[in-house]
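step=encode ok
step=design start
structure_in=
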């Protein structure tokens, strides 16, 4: 009852208690290593040595690349509670009401610290496009002041689909500990992501199948690979083959999915151009062995 009461109070302030990650994220080895190296900085030992507390990370990249899943996993990696800040729910009609709501929410997060404060699709909340009242700019100022002055151990995770829409002062170097670009997964990462999602349905397929599909899904995002795995599992179930997915199932479902990077190639390329001034979340693509011919492993 106490937990439910506190949860309702937080919800009224625009803060949701984030659910722990139910699945790991595939790939993104550079981001994973960076987080693990900083996991001890929230310990009592680190505080006794006056080591600086991490401020947070900006995760930007095309939609569907797993930024939200990563945000939830960050709480698991750092072993901290996850709070999600919903700025849209804090907007009020009275002058100064929105900014006051944001300040109260930030103070609440500071009182709960150490914790993760996740702001999802932050560009929608902070973009000044169409805002003639200046509310977005004042909310931005409140968040920037909080990030620069808070020493309680609030680790801010801001996720963003379009970094070009963010104010310059929010994404400049030094505002966060690091700005990471989460790009479309590499071939190796696509293997890992497919494996993770197929295992959610109790499905195991040969590594050769994963490699063959990964080689054929060059522009697929993590979300589109999740859809592919779900559709293949459903297809096998409909054909009275529960948990028995064949390579042909995966190929048929893959052909029915048109990735966003193909549908809106210009928008994805615009986002990828920002990666030149950000840190990559994944290691550079390595020259891999030639993809296995799918016909060799096809079963009906």
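sequence_out=
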């Amino acid at each position: 009852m106490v937990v439910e009461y506190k949860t309702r109070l937080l919800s009224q302030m625009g803060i949701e208690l984030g659910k722990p990650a139910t699945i790991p994220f595939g790939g993104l080895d550079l981001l994973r290593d960076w987080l693990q190296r900083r996991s001890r900085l929230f310990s009592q030992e680190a505080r006794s040595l006056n080591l600086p507390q991490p401020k947070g990370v900006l995760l930007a990249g095309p939609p569907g690349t797993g930024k939200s899943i990563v945000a939830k996993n960050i709480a698991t990696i750092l072993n901290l509670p996850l709070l999600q800040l919903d700025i849209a729910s804090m907007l009020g009609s009275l002058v100064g009401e929105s900014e006051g709501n944001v300040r109260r929410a930030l103070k609440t997060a500071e009182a709960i610290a150490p914790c993760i404060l996740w702001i999802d699709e932050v560009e929608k909340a902070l973009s000044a496009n169409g805002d003639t009242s200046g509310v977005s700019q004042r909310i931005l100022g409140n968040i920037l002041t909080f990030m620069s002055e808070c020493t309680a151990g609030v680790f801010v995770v801001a996720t963003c689909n379009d970094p070009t829409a963010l104010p310059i002062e929010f994404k400049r170097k030094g505002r966060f500990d690091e700005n990471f670009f989460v790009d479309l997964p590499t071939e190796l990462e696509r293997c890992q992501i497919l494996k993770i999602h197929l295992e959610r349905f109790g499905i195991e397929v040969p590594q050769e199948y994963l490699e063959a599909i990964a080689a054929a899904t060059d522009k697929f995002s993590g979300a589109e690979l999740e859809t592919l795995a779900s559709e293949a599992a459903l297809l096998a179930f409909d054909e009275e083959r529960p948990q028995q997915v064949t390579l042909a199932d995966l190929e048929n479902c893959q052909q029915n999915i048109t990735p966003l990077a193909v549908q809106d190639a210009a928008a994805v390329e615009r986002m990828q151009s920002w990666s030149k001034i950000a840190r990559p979340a994944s290691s550079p693509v390595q020259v891999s062995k030639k993809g296995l011919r799918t016909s060799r492993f096809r079963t009906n």
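step=design ok
step=annotate ok -> The longest helix spans residues 222-238.
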